[in-house]
Amino acid sequence: MFGRCQILLIKKLLKSFAAKGRPQRADPGAPRLIGPDAHGLNPDKVSKGARQVVKSLVEAGYCADLVGGCVRDLLLDKRPKDFDVVTDASPEEVRQVFPRARIVGRRFRIVHVRVGREVIEVSTYRAGNEDEAEREDSAKNKFGRILRDNVFGTRDQDVHRRDFTVNALYYDINTNTVVDYVRGLDDIEAGRLRFIGDPFTRINEDPVRMLRAVRFKAKLGLALDSGLEALCRDHARLIRHVPPARLFDEVLKLFHSGHGVETFWLLREFGLFAELFPEADRSYGEKDLDPDTGIVLKGLKNTDLRISQRKPVIAAFLFACLFWRPVRLKCDRHEAKRKNHPQILQRAAFDVLGRETERVMIPRRVSTVVIEIWDMQSRLETRRPRMVEKLLEHRRFRAAYDFLLLRSESGEVDSGLAKWWTDIQECDESSRQKMIKELGSSGPPRKRRKRQRRRPKSPNGNVR
Ligand code: ATP
Ligand code: MG
Q1: Ranges of H-type helices in 88-243
Q2: Taking the model in full, what pTM does it have?
Q3: Residues with CB under 6 A from ligand 1
C-alpha cells in the first residue's frame, strides 16, 4: 500500500510529534575553541595533582584534558570536589605512565592515580557501541540501558557519552583553551542544565542521570531545561532498574553534597525519593516534613552545616535520620502491646533496613552503626548511673548523642535530658562524678529482678 519512502516519511513525522513537548536536545557538532579571554580560567586554580597527571600523560605522548565537574565548577567560580582527567591512553597505558595507579570499575573502567594525598580519576575517551565486534566491552540491555561502557574512542566521540552540556567541557591546561562541542559554556552562563542528545533516551540509558540532575540543581542552582522536571517525574520508576549498590553511592553523593535539605525536597517533588525509600516516604507525616519538628530535615540541615564547616559526616547518621520515623511507627505499635523495648526496636530496625535495602543497598558496615545509634537512645534516656561512663566511652557515643540532640530539638525527648548529656561532656572530672551521683539519688529506682523461687521437684521429676 505504501512505498518505502512514504513509510520513512510517516516514521519521521511520528518521531517529530513524539519529540514535541520533550526538552530541547543539544547535539554535538564541531567544537568551539574558547581562549582565556572568553573563559576566564586560570590553570593555577587546578590542583597540583591534576596538573601533574596531565603533564606526565602529555610528556608520554598522549592527549590529556580536564573534564566534567571540575571545569564546570571552575567556570562557575566554585571549588571543584575533585579533578577528572580524560585521555586517549587506554587504562593499561595510563598504568604504564603511573605504575602505582589502580584500574577500578567494571561497568566503566577508569584509573585512580594517587599524587600525594590527592586521587585523580583518569578515564579514557569513550566511543559509541555500534560496532558488533566490540559488544563484549560495551553493552545495552533490551530496554536500552547501558550495562558496560568500555569501548574507547576519540574526544569527538567521548562528548556524546557525557550527560549534560555543562559537564562536557574539556579544558586543555597546556594551551589554556576550553573545548566546547555542545554550547556548554552558554548553558553555564545561562545557569541551565541541559542533556546532550534526546533527554528521554539519555535517562533510559542510565536512570541515575535523573539523580544527577537533582544534585546539580540543588548544588549549583542550575535551572532544569524545560520539560526535564516532568520527564523525571514521569520516569522516576526507572530508578528501580539501577543496581542497589550503585544507588547507595549516588544517595551519599546526593545527601553529602552540602545541600541535603534542598536535595530532599527536589527528590520528593520529582517522585524519586519514594522510588529510593518507599517505606520511609510513606511513613512521613506533616510533622516530619516541618523544618521545626522533622528529624529528617533537622538532620539534613545539621549535615549541611557540618559540610560547610568541613567537619566529617558519616553515612550511618543520614540513614538513622531517614529511617527513624518508620522504625518508630513499628515500635509504637508494639509498645501498645507492652512488649520489651530494646528487642522491639531491633526487630523494627531489621525490618525497615531490610526492606529499604532492596532498592538502595546499605552495606552492613553502615547498617550496623545505624542500629547502634538507635539502640543507644533508650540508654541515653535512662541514664543508669553505672552506665554513664561506659556510654561516654562508647565508640558511637558522639553520633548517638547528636541524634539525641535532634530528637530533643524536635520535641521527641525532654530538652533537659539533652542538656544533661552536653554538660557531662564539658565539665571536669569531679563535677562529672557529682552529676552521676545525683542521678543515683534522684533517678528512677532500679528495678530489682525478682528472683524466682525454685520449686522443689517431685521425686519423679515433675514440677509440683
Ligand atoms: P561532581 O562535582 O559531583 O564530581 P561531576 O560532574 O564531576 O560532579 P562525576 O561523577 O565526577 O561527576 O563524573 C565526571 C564526569 O563524567 C561528569 O561531569 C560527566 O561528564 C561524566 N559522567 C559521570 N556520570 C555520568 C553518567 N551517569 N552519564 C553520563 N556521563 C556521566
Ligand atoms: Mg567529578
Answers
A1: 91-97, 155-161, 184-190, 199-205, 208-220, 228-235
A2: 0.84
A3: 68-69, 81-82, 84, 162-163, 167-168, 206, 208-209
